[in-house]
Design brief:
Blueprint: H1 9-14, E1 35-41, E2 47-53, E3 58-63, H2 74-82, E4 86-90, H3 107-120, E5 125-131, H4 133-144, E6 152-156, E7 170-176, H5 182-191, E8 196-201, H6 216-228
Parallel strand pairs: 3-4, 3-5, 5-6, 6-7, 7-8
Antiparallel strand pairs: 1-2, 2-4
Length: 232
């Protein structure tokens, strides 16, 4: 089992005393697969825990689907770190140790909190990848974010966001051809403002489940390439 870098020798030396020290935002290893668990507060008073990979000034927030958690992004986060990104895979409120704030069901606050945490830690550009439930939350966050807070937005078979026409950023919608969510994704794409792109992939796998199929590698490559491309 991988051990987060934030609980390395420090946890070993303090664990017997029952102490916990929050890790800083710097991962102290060149291993792109290494991460540390960090936490941050949301604007409505929640506390969100996340795995932080890499040290780049370009950062990506990873927002999981309802059947997943922050660990589900490990392979993609490791790849992003190897490409020079800082990747923050969050656990939504109610998942793992993450705690809800005052606003009921406000998953978008968890994403906005992650964006602002990365900015505070020195990230100059932040993008968001959201899948299914996390994609809807990412869309809602992009509609509420301050101008320039979100650079790129990847919505992987996302549930419907409340105000797709207000979503910021250069937007990429991805869905499987036979996914039951396809029509919802297409309607959200139609309502979204430019710049935007829609990609239909083969098969019926939904959102993060695509990574577990034979198309998973191609999806990863498409995401990495698109994040690094020039905005239209």
């Amino acid at each position: 089992m991988r051990i987060p870098t934030s609980v390395g020798w420090l946890a070993a030396s303090l664990g017997m005393a029952g102490l916990w020290v929050e890790g800083s935002a710097q991962v102290s290893t060149n291993d792109p697969g290494a991460f540390q668990e960090v936490s941050f507060e949301t604007s409505d008073g929640g506390r969100i825990f996340a795995n932080l990979y890499g040290r780049g000034s370009d950062a990506v927030v990873l927002a999981h689907g309802a059947a997943f958690d922050k660990e589900s992004w490990d392979d993609l986060a490791t790849r992003l770190a190897a490409e020079g990104y800082r990747a923050l895979a969050i656990d939504f409120r109610g998942y793992g140790k993450s705690q809800a704030g005052r606003a009921r069901g406000a998953l978008h606050e968890d994403i906005l909190g992650g964006i602002r945490y990365l900015k505070q830690q020195g990230a100059t550009r932040v993008s968001v990848i959201g899948a299914s439930m996390g994609g809807g939350a990412a869309g809602d966050a992009a509609a509420r974010a301050e101008p320039g807070e979100i650079d790129r937005l990847i919505l992987l078979a996302a549930v419907a966001a409340g105000s797709p026409g207000r979503m910021q950023g250069n937007k990429l919608f991805i869905v499987s051809r036979q996914d039951g969510a396809r029509r919802t994704v297409e309607r959200q794409f139609e309502a979204a403002a430019e710049p935007k792109e829609l990609r239909i992939v083969g098969g019926s796998a939904h959102a993060q489940h695509i990574f577990r199929t034979g198309r998973g590698r191609d999806l990863t490559e498409a995401i990495v390439t698109w994040l690094g491309g020039d905005a239209p």
